Every structure is written in structure tokens, then in C-alpha cells.
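Exercise 7b. C-alpha cells:
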């Protein structure tokens, strides 16, 4: 039996799923327990194996329990898509043979791999494919649906207008599009717009945008329902953050907005477009999302029509 490891973050986990339909058999997926729900209901995964490394760092008793549990796993081969020391150690503990990159994100990780694969690509989805000796850009542009969920209906979805999802949050402040741009974009679109939010800060921002627009509904959703809502929508516009890539995964039209980062993650296609302020570096110190061009965002949306 084989497994893959991709512990975090949500967006990176979603990108890595593109490999799974190309494999000849289902595979187990080792993931940080915080993100396990994103993998639920996948026909490409045998078992989701959640681990609590973040919590274990704080609690010695939990660390011991996690170590004992991991020692009980016994895979023939494990592919480490994370490329960090912690993921390489987990791969080594739970497998007879661990596979990783010659040039992982943390160099020391390669010391623990039994098989080391060369990776030359700068794009994440291509890099994930290389670990399995796969190279197929045509497939990456036309990949199948990658995320699945327990179905449900939504009162917030319109039957007469197009449904547009705004993803306004992000883990880094420098990734967040200014609220005035969201307000202006909503005025131009004149469609049914839904803003899913998590936490009090996002809730406050979502309601501020809604109060200054006529066509916006803020909603709080769990991860399963977020997958379902986005899958049933016509368009997503979002910051460079995990939930935005749910649309990419399921071939829902999407525009991803980049400021202090750029698109080194996916290959653009008929469903996925990018608007970038710069394309040179990933730098948390950059404060440039205010430079996003509303005209360019609208132009990209028009390309879908």
C-alpha cells in the first residue's frame, strides 16, 4: 500500500490533488488534522490519515501518542509532496521506502528519503507530478474534478442571476485585496454575490462590503458547505488563499488576485485566470494589493463570456 504526505496549507493540499486521478490505484493521504475535511468523499483516496503535529509540539503527551500511532502505520512506499523536515521524518517512520525531491523546500529533508527525484519545474502542480515521474501539461490544463462533498441546497444561490463568490480573506495581510476594490467590483458585476467568511475579522469586512453594495450576502460555512457552494457557483474572484483554489480544483470559473505573491501554483486554462501586480517574488513585506487594476479584473472576467 502507498500513501502521499501533504500536511498543509489548504491551497497546497488542493493543488497536490491533481496527481491522484493519474495514479493507477487509490492511495492514502496523510494530512494535518486541521485540513482533513478538504479531502473527504474523494474517490481517489482510500483513507485520510490526519496527524496533529502542530498540537503535539505543545503537548508532550500528545506527541508520544502521535509517534506511537505513526509507528503503527506500515506503507510500502510514501511520497512526500511537502518537502519539509517534519514531513520527511513522518514519511521515514511510516514507510519501507520514502520518496522525495533532491531539492526539497528544506534541504535537510532529502537526507531521509530512500528515493530522490529531480524536479526542475517552478510551477507547483508540475512539481507534484514530477515526484511520480509524470509530465502532462495537457492533463494539468484539462484535469477532472478534484474536490467532493456531501451535497446540500443553498438559499443564497440565485436562480435568475449568476452566482459569484468573493473570497476576501487570506493568511497574509499583504494578500488581501482592499475592501474598496471589492465594493467597486460588486457594482460593476450586478450579479448575486456571496462572501463566505471565517472569524470575526473576515465577518466584519464581509458585512462592510455588503453594507456598501446592493447585491452581496455574507455567509458562514463549514468546509464541506464551502466546497459545495463554490462548486454550484458561476464564478469565483478571490485572493491567493486556499478557499479560492476550490474553484480551480472543480473547474469553476475563477480569477485569482495576486499582490505580494504571483501565480507559481497552477497552469491557467479556460476556467482559471490570474491578475498579478508583480511576477518576480514572494515577499510578505510587499504592500501592493491597492495597485490591482479593476479594469484588468473585469477584462479577465469578460474573457469567460
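Sequence design result:
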Amino acid at each position: 500500500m502507498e500513501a502521499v504526505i501533504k500536511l498543509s496549507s489548504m491551497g497546497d493540499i488542493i493543488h497536490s490533488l491533481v496527481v491522484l486521478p493519474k495514479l493507477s490505484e487509490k492511495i492514502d493521504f496523510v494530512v494535518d488534522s486541521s485540513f482533513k475535511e478538504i479531502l473527504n468523499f474523494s474517490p481517489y483516496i482510500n483513507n485520510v490519515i490526519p496527524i496533529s503535529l502542530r498540537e503535539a509540539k505543545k503537548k508532550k503527551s500528545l506527541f508520544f501518542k502521535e509517534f506511537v500511532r505513526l509507528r503503527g502505520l506500515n506503507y510500502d512506499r510514501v511520497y512526500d509532496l511537502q518537502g519539509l523536515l517534519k514531513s520527511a521524518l513522518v514519511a521515514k517512520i511510516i514507510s519501507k521506502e520514502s520518496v522525495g525531491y533532491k531539492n526539497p523546500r528544506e534541504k535537510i529533508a532529502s537526507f531521509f528519503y530512500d528515493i530522490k527525484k529531480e524536479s526542475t519545474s517552478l510551477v507547483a502542480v508540475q512539481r507534484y507530478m514530477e515526484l511520480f515521474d509524470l509530465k502532462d501539461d495537457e492533463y494539468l490544463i484539462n484535469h477532472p474534478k478534484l474536490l467532493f462533498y456531501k451535497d446540500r441546497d443553498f438559499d443564497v444561490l440565485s436562480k435568475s442571476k449568476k452566482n459569484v463568490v468573493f473570497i476576501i480573506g487570506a493568511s497574509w495581510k499583504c494578500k488581501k485585496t482592499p475592501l474598496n476594490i471589492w465594493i467597486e467590483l460588486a457594482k460593476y458585476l450586478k450579479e448575486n454575490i456571496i462572501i463566505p467568511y471565517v472569524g470575526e475579522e473576515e465577518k466584519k469586512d464581509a458585512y462592510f462590503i455588503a453594507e456598501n453594495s446592493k447585491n452581496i450576502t455574507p455567509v458562514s460555512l463549514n468546509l464541506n458547505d464551502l466546497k459545495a457552494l463554490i462548486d454550484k457557483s458561476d464564478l469565483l474572484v478571490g485572493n491567493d488563499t486556499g478557499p479560492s483554489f476550490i474553484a480551480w480544483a472543480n473547474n469553476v470559473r475563477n480569477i485569482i488576485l495576486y499582490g505580494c505573491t504571483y501565480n507559481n501554483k497552477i497552469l491557467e486554462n479556460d476556467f482559471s485566470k490570474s491578475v498579478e501586480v508583480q511576477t518576480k517574488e514572494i515577499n510578505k513585506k510587499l504592500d501592493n494589493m491597492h495597485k490591482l487594476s479593476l479594469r484588468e479584473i473585469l477584462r479577465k472576467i469578460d474573457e469567460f463570456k
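Instructor comment: The CA atoms of residues 56 and 65 lie 9 Å apart. The chain has eleven helices and twelve strands.
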